[in-house]
Amino acid sequence: MASVEAGTGSHTALRNLGGGGVRAPLLSGVMRLLVLGGTSFVGRAIVDDALRQGAEVTLFSRGRTGADLFPGVPRLIGDRDTGDYAALSDGSWDAVVDVSGYVPRHVGQAMEELGDRVGRYLFISSQAVYVRTGVGPSSDEDTPRRPPVRDTEELDEDTYGPCKVACEDDVVARYGSRATIVRLGKVAGPHDVQDGLTYWVRRAARGGRVALPSSPEQPVQVVDSRDVARLVVQLLLDDRPGAFHAVGPAEPTTMAELITTCAQVAGSQVEVVPVPAEAVSPFFPLTRPKSMWPTQQRSPARARAAGMPATPLAVTIADVLAWDRERGEPPLRHGLSPTEEAKLLSRA
């Protein structure tokens, strides 16, 4: 019970922080930014945007992913899984963006090492922090969160969100008004390491009858990774505390509309055919049971007011299509193969 009370208190602190206006700009000169992660997908977009804004970026990672990215950007090598933060023992930064913190130990050790040698701590969190029942459409950042979990580092559907809650609480407890939380929805764009939007972009480009293991009317929210990056960097430049939803696209969208837009971008023709959801994996790209539809209707209002752009869905789709083709359309981990889909369609 004590852990739940601690989480509730930190959530109140976030709500209070998020309700204020923009404080004085963070810098009068060049922003010195430390990114914990930053060489995969969301972090990569954040580093790209920060460099375009003229920031001096330092990367901290294991050095195993994207080693050829960002030549000239200083790289500090460490490993959060093993607690190796020795490379962060020196230096100071105006802000840190924590892209790779998933469990409280990650965040706690980073904060212990950095202390007050960073001005603002921006933590990349998730929509998975929120309770899953009793939530309606257009829910905002004050929606109740799930109780924090600190006694495991095994991440699954039951623990991922609560571990993020604990991380949020710890960042706010340590940095107070110098803490910022960005809660990601489903992020899409070039270099996506998951198969969410990529599956539907590739499938719609083939045209024909498309099996959808969900209702065509299911709402879906995908946010362009570059919009997330623009929000993150702007929050740092404005020195803005609080919690923010990074969700999109610009207009409310259903699964049928998303698939149709994918086809229009690719110049193909499709017929969306509903098939039983139980015939596929529960982690099928972008689909959700009806009880979860409100989780795909979060309000982006606070983030938009703070400067998050709204890239048109068709633009994100076109860029994913071009990127996927350029990399040779490698096998995807999720979704239906043509043979599997044909069997489902034959029974539809």
What is the gist of this entry?
The chain has helices spanning 2-18, 42-52, 104-114, 160-175, 196-206, 225-237, 255-266, 301-305, 313-326, 338-347, and strands at 32-36, 56-61, 75-77, 93-98, 118-126, 179-184, 186-188, 208-212, 219-220, 222-224, 242-246, 253-254, 270-274. It has 348 residues and is an alpha/beta fold.
Description:
Strand 4, helix 3 (104-114) and strand 5 form a beta-alpha-beta unit. Helix 3 runs parallel beside helix 4, helix 5 (196-206) packs across helix 9 (313-326) and helix 7 (255-266) packs across helix 9 (313-326). The N and C termini lie far apart (49 Å). The strands form 4 sheets. A 7-stranded parallel sheet has the order 3-2-1-4-5-6-11, sandwiched between helices. A two-stranded parallel ribbon has the order 7-10. Strands 8-13 form a two-stranded parallel ribbon. The radius of gyration is 20 Å and the shape is globular. It has 10 helices and 13 strands. It is 34% helix and 17% strand. It is of the alpha/beta class.
